[in-house]
Amino acid sequence: MSSENVVFISGATGFIAQHIVKLLLEAGYKTIGSVRSEEKGENLKSLLKSAGLKSDLFSYVIVKDIGAKGAFDEALKAHPEVTVFLHTASPFTFEVHDAERDLLKPAIEGTTNALNAIKEYGKNVQRVVVTSSYAAVAGFADLVTPGKEVNESSWNPITYDQSKANPFVGYIGSKKHAEKTVWKFAEENKPKWEITVVNPVYVLGPQAFEVKDKSKLNTSNEIINSILTAGKKKEEPQQYVGYFIDVRDVAKAHIVAFEKKEAIGQRLLLADAPFNSGEIYDIIAEDFPKLKPELPELDKSKGPKFEDSESIINNEKTRKILGFKFIDLRKSVDDTIAQLQ
After folding, report:
1. pLDDT tens across 93-142, in order?
2. pTM tops 0.70, yes or no
3. Alpha carbons 81 and 292: distance in angstroms, whole number
4. Phi, psi values for residue 159, rounded to 5°
5. CB-facing half-sphere around the CA of 57: CA atoms within 13 A
6. Handedness of CA 279, 280, 286, 287 (dihedral sign)
7. Stretches in the chain below the pLDDT threshold 70
8. Sign of dihedral through CA atoms 173, 174, 175, 177?
9. Burial level of 211, CB count in 10 A (0-12/13-18/19+)?
10. What's the distance, Cα to Cα, between the start and end of the chain in Å?
11. 43, 88, 309, 340 - which has most CB atoms within 10 Å?
12. How far apart are CA 65 and CA 272, in angstroms?
């Protein structure tokens, strides 16, 4: 399949996207990534080359702002050979002054721009995969339903207006409403290409390539890193609870999403198991004894309780479609810490 397919990936320098690019090149796919600047594009090319990957299979196009009207038009006009479009790019920041302006609209418009460009200029596109989030599946904050089962057909009940309240719910809402845009587009336009959406929970695990700047980890991995940094600062780290999935499994799921016909029209709900900060702390202490003196004090009794805040995920359908075993928490944490050292 790889020789006849050309894959376009938006947001190619992202945490998940770099792992996807790595897998695409290993599988022999010609890959075109969108990046925000030439500097980012060249940096990614050099990372691919340094890792011994077939960097000649990778090229990039510059899309400065995915929220700008027609953002992907020129990229797809220039590359009519694209057969698979992976839309992983999404605005993500908690430095938000206006949740609607800074989160909701950019997420929805970025998704709409990608879909419109594929419709107009992606004449050979057959499969489209969109990266969404567990935030689109289950309720959070005031809408949380502890103990309620959620699955691939569940939706976060948050409304557009509720999403405007603050940055946290703005991020949650942006994921739901951007994904709703995908399914509405498919229903109204009946495109010739097939859609799959990927909905991961907290994404942990190592970066795809060596980490030069450890101050800029992805937000989910700060859950692990914050335990180390809190120790250095002699602070007690913030504690988390939820479900996790390893980034390498998220990347693999994107490949399966366009390769397997069983994934067509599906939402792939990616979650391995529940976790909390106490478990991560114990794994670091047991598997990296040299780091033990650097670890902070952690009062596990102060951590949030799973049964008070989390829905129960049933993703048997997703696991069956994917057909591979997920990486467990210990390996995910160990590989992340090993890379940070």
Report:
1. 557 889 999 999 999 999 999 999 999 999 999 999 999 999 999 999 88
2. yes
3. 53
4. -90, 170
5. 22
6. positive
7. 1-3, 91-94, 212-219
8. positive
9. middle
10. 38
11. 88
12. 33
The alpha carbon of residue 147 and the mean position of all alpha carbons in its chain are separated, in whole angstroms, by 25
Distances from the Cα of 213 to the Cα of 11, 37, 325, angstroms: 19, 18, 31
Q: What pLDDT digit, counting tens, does each position of 22-62 carry? A: 999 999 999 999 999 999 999 999 999 999 999 999 999 99
CB 78 within 8 A of CB 41: no
- Tell me the domains of the chain and their CATH numbers: 2-204+243-272+312-326 (3.40.50.720)
Instruction: For residue 318, give the amino acid letter.
Output: T
What whole-number distance in Å separates Cα of residue 161 and Cα of residue 170?
Answer: 10
Residue 104 carries which DSSP code? I
* Residues in a beta bridge with 31: 7, 58
Pairwise CA distance, residues 252 & 255, whole Å:
5
Distance of CA 69 to CAs 110, 113, 209, Å? 8, 6, 32
Residue type, 85: F
- Name the amino acid, one letter, at 1: M
As a residue count, the chain comes to: 341
